[in-house]
Write a structure and sequence with these properties.
five-stranded antiparallel beta sheet; mainly beta; 1 helix; 8% helix; 2 domains
Length: 260
């Protein structure tokens, strides 16, 4: 093959390569889909496609956003209950329509313990914790158990904290309870009789119930010594515990309240 023919062949091959390169598809800006706001019948860039948001139109622009009422560029927002332009708000603890952080003045936890010795009828005692908004030492004489009258059947229930002088003392600590944190309350039940033990715990100011009597702002746990025990809510949303007690037995219970 002479040099002239070789040059001709090389030139022909280069021409074919050039034509092939020119015939390759080239991306064209614009979206190929007719329902997009940036539709281009010749467009090939699928990643560029955009569509109006909610009640907005293409002419409102790509960044236009509808509010919860469907108004383009509007300011309506859903409240914490999911209602558009609603009035529900989060309280200080992050609970929607919650009661707030502080325990209201004169709120209380009321505990009633009853024992039925030998099925001859229940004997009952009661203890309370009452709080105030200023977190002062909220002291209730019902929390100081009176010494039982010997020779009769008796039961005593009282709140107990480790920094009291004795279970029968009256040196209370200053307390300021918040619904935003876990709260624990310890109480003691003593009796010189044995039998079925029924305990009722009323703490309505702390807990929020829905129409199905489920707690919606937290959880409650009750312990007998170190063991978590079962309980149930009655029709008044009062905690009910069924247990037993032996003669001269001291039973310690613990209530744990945690909030959302």
């Amino acid at each position: 093959m002479d040099t002239h023919n070789l040059k001709y062949i090389i030139s022909f091959l280069l021409l074919i390569l050039f034509i092939g390169a020119c015939s390759e598809s080239v991306d064209t800006s614009g979206c190929p889909y007719p329902d997009s706001c940036n539709y281009n019948p010749d467009g090939t860039d699928e990643d560029s496609c955009w569509y109006p948001d909610g009640g907005c139109l293409c002419e409102d622009g790509e960044d236009a956003i509808s509010d919860c009422a469907g108004q383009c560029g509007g300011s309506a927002e859903e409240d914490c209950a999911g209602v558009c332009n609603g009035s529900s708000e989060l309280d200080a603890c992050g609970v929607c329509n919650g009661p707030g952080e502080s325990i209201p003045e004169s709120s209380n936890i009321n505990i009633t313990a009853a024992v039925n010795p030998w099925n001859l009828g229940f004997i009952v005692d009661q203890a309370d914790i009452i709080f105030s908004d200023n977190c002062l030492d909220d002291y209730d004489s019902n929390d100081i158990p009176e010494l039982p009258v010997f020779g009769t059947n008796w039961i005593k229930v009282y709140f107990h904290y480790l920094d009291w002088d004795t279970p029968f003392g009256n040196e209370f600590t200053e307390t300021c309870y918040s619904r935003c944190q876990m709260n624990e309350f310890s109480f003691i039940v003593e009796s010189n009789a044995q039998g079925e033990l029924e305990i009722r715990i009323d703490m309505h100011e702390y807990l929020i119930f829905d129409s199905f009597s489920d707690i919606i702002n937290g959880e409650i746990e009750v312990y007998d010594s170190d063991e978590m025990i079962d309980f149930y809510f009655d029709v008044d949303n009062v905690v009910n515990i069924n247990s037993t007690i032996q003669s001269n037995e001291t039973k310690e219970f613990l209530i744990k309240l945690s909030f959302n």
